Amino acid sequence: MKKVMIVDDEIGIRENIRNSVQWEKEGFHYCGDAPDGELALPLIEEWAPDILITDIKMPFMNGLELASIIRAQKPHIKIIIMSGHDEFSYAQEAIRLGVTEYCLKPVSATELLQILHEVSQKMDEEEQRLTSLTMTKEKLLADLCGGLIGTSDAIDSAKKLSLSLSAKFYTIVIMDIRPHDDSQNSELLLNKTIRILEEFCSVDVEFLSYIRSRTERVLLLKSSSENRIMAYLEQLRGQIRLDLEQQFNCSVVIGIGSHQERLQGIHVSYLEADEDKYITRLTQQNKASLREIHLDEKMNILLDRNRFLEFLKIGDLHLRDSFVQEFAAPLQSIDWNSSSYGVYLLNDLTLESFRIANQIFRMGADPDENIRSLQQMIRGITSWEACTRYLCDLLDQLWQRRAASSGKYSDVIDQVKAYVSGQYNNEQVSLKSISAHVRISPSHLSKIFSQETGQTITEYLTQVRIGKAKELLKTTSNKTFEIAFKVGYNDPHYFSNIFKKTTGFTPKEYRTRGAVVPDESSEDMRKEPMYE
C-alpha cells in the first residue's frame, strides 16, 4: 500500500482531496498534508511518502522548489504537480525536474485517482525491473543455499534468467581450491576448474555454480537419477580431485551435502556440505601430520577404521568395552608421553566417525565446537587405558546423539514456534534473534528446522504473520496499514506485496471476499520467504 502526502497552501483543497478519496479502498494510505514546501520537508522525512502531490504556487517554498529538493534527496518519491496556471513554462520546469505527472486545477477525485493508479503502476513496474536487474544467477543460487528465497520466487527468478531449476534430485558440493604457489590467482584458478568439472558430467547430471569466496566454488548438482549423482560424486572425490590437483598444482577440499528432492532442501544440503568440507580439511591436515610422524618415528601401527565405523553404526552398549579393548590392542605399544603418533591416529578416527555420525544421525550441534572439545580430550591422553576410555566416551557421545536426536529436535522446534508465536509482531525478529533465544548457532538451527518442518525459519515466520493478518482482516475493521504494523511489518506496501504473493489476494480483496476465500494450505503458506 503506497503512502500519499499532499502539499497545498489552500486548506479547502487539502481537505477536499483528503475527504473525496476512499484511500484504503483504492489501495493507498493517506499519511497527511502540509501548507507549503518548507513545512512539508520535515514531515516528508517523518512519514516517508511514496507519492507526493504538491501545488506549484505556494508561499515560502513553492512546489517546483520542493520538487527540486526531493529529487535530489529522495529520488524514489514520485511527484505529482498541480497548478492552476496553464503556462508552458511551469510544465517545462516540472518535466526538467523529473516530475512524474503534471495536472491542472481543479482536478476531480476521479481524475486524481486515475493519475494515482497510473503512478502506482509505474512504481510497480520499476520495482519489477529493478528486481530482475539485481537478481543474477549467482545471487539466486546463493539465496537458495542460504534459505533466503521461497520456491515460487526461485522458479520465477530462474525463468527470468533462463535457468532450469527443475529436477528430481539436488545435491550441494562446496569445493575449496587453493594454489600451492602464492603467485597464482585464486579466482582465475576457480574459473579454470569449471572445464574439467563439466567434462566429467554426464547428460543425466547438470550443475549450476557460483563463487562463494576467494577460494571456494559452490556446485548445485541436479539430476533425474540419484544414482547418477552418486556416481559423479564418487568421481569428484576421486579422479576429478586428483586431476585438478595435478593439473593446477593446488589442493582441493570437497564438502558434499545430502540428496534432496525439493528446492527448499537445497538449504539443508548446503549446510551439510559446509560441515563436510570443514571435517574433510581437518582430516587432510591430520593425515599429512600423521605421514610426517610415521616417517620420523618409523611407526607401523594401523587401526581398522572401517571396523570401528561399522560398530558405530550398528553396535550397542553391552558390547562396547570388549570391542574397544580388542580394537585398541595395537596401540598398547605406543609411549603416549613421548610420541604423538597415537594422538594423530585417534584424531583421524574421530574426524571420520564425526563425518559418519553427521550423515546417519543428523546431528545438530556445531561441528567446530564438538571437534575442538574431542581434540582437547585426545591431547590429554597419557596411557593406553586413557585411550580406551576416550574411545568408549566417543562412542557414547555419538550414540547419545543418535538416540536423542528426534526428541531434541522436537524440543527445539517447539521452542522456536513458541518464540515466534509471541514475537511475530516485532519487526526485529530474525534467525539471529531466534537462535540466540534457543541457544543454538544460526546455521545449525536453520538446518534442524528445515529438516524437521520442510520450511525455513523465515518462511515459518512469514506464515505466522500472514495467518494473523488474515485473522485480523476477517474479524476487525483495522485498516491495512494498521494490520501490517500489528503483524510485524513497518512498511505497509511491502506487507501488501507479501500478502498477495502468499495468498493470491491483496488484503483488500481478501477482506471483501470474506468467507468465500478458500483457506490456503500450509504448503502454499510456505512459499514466500521473509529476507533477513
Automatic annotation (TrEMBL):
Subcellular compartments: Cytoplasm
CDD domains on file: REC_YesN-like (cd17536)
Every Response regulatory domain range: 3-120
InterPro entries with a match to the protein in the record: CdaR_GGDEF (IPR041522), CheY-like_superfamily (IPR011006), Homeodomain-like_sf (IPR009057), HptR (IPR051552), HTH_AraC (IPR018060), Sig_transdc_resp-reg_receiver (IPR001789), Tscrpt_reg_AraC-type_HTH (IPR020449)
Domain of life: Bacteria
Statement: the UniProt record of this protein carries the keyword DNA-binding: yes
Gene3D superfamilies xref list: 3.40.50.2300, Homeodomain-like
Domain HTH araC/xylS-type positions: 414-513
Name of the featured protein: Response regulator
PTM-bearing positions, type 4-aspartylphosphate: 55
Sections of the chain in a coiled coil: 109-143
Chief localization: cytoplasm
Name of one Pfam family that matches: HTH_18
Keyword Lyase applies: no
Keywords on record: Coiled coil, Cytoplasm, DNA-binding, Phosphoprotein, Transcription, Transcription regulation, Two-component regulatory system
